[in-house]
Amino acid sequence: MKRTVLLILSVLLVLSLFSCESQEKIKADFTVYCFNAGAADSFLIRTKNSAVLIDTAESSFGDEITDYLSSQGIDRLDYLIITHFDKDHVGGAAKVLKSISVENVLQSNYTKDTSKKYDNYVSALSYARIEAVTVREELRFSLDGAEFTVNPPEQEVYEKSASNNSSLIVSVRYGERQFLFCGDAEKERLSEFIGMNTEKYDFVKIPHHGRWNSKIPELLSSVSPAYAVITSSAAEPEDKKTVDALESFGTEIFYTKNAPVRVVCDGTHIAVEYAE
What we know:
By secondary structure, this protein is an alpha/beta fold.
């Protein structure tokens, strides 16, 4: 009997070690790096030969983004996507545009004409001789087998939270896995997306830094995420009701306030972990 028990335990230990090793050895054909930028958004998506940056956090974070790109040997972005023009999403864009070659820029349709950060962004576009594309209809592109869909707001102007509700929502399919980036979408914008969504997502960037709104449970029911990341900070924390909703769906939550978050995917397997 003892020998049988020991044999079973040995087999379980070997299987456990094999499982951990296989996660560590996922071939990084596709990675998402979620910057630790406080209550602000910036995400780098890398495929085999390409790189896409979604949002650029605040202006003070621009140097950190460009330093990280340099450390990774990235001297060119295929796309820079600005989900909307709040300072915690567009702030670092001027630094990025002046420091690295950017092939394409996609932006939201709602501009903040009185924002200094927006003015700096527009000036940097001119400096880089880039004409940004304002996304008003669903836009799709593919890079190394990763299929990107940029879903625009349905309205030109929203009565409430006009900037946040004008967020571009970006989804990415790589093999069997799907990733969703919700910008700062609030109730009206989330309602639009939920109404047209037919997909389930493995990884979701929770909108608006984890702040609660009544559409969060409906969003989670619609997309059924296995993993979620929240871009909050100690000074601007996520709402407990949002965390409770995620936990009720069995979603594993990662917080960029703790450390940068890295997602690795080979098209079938996916691993999410803190980068530091």
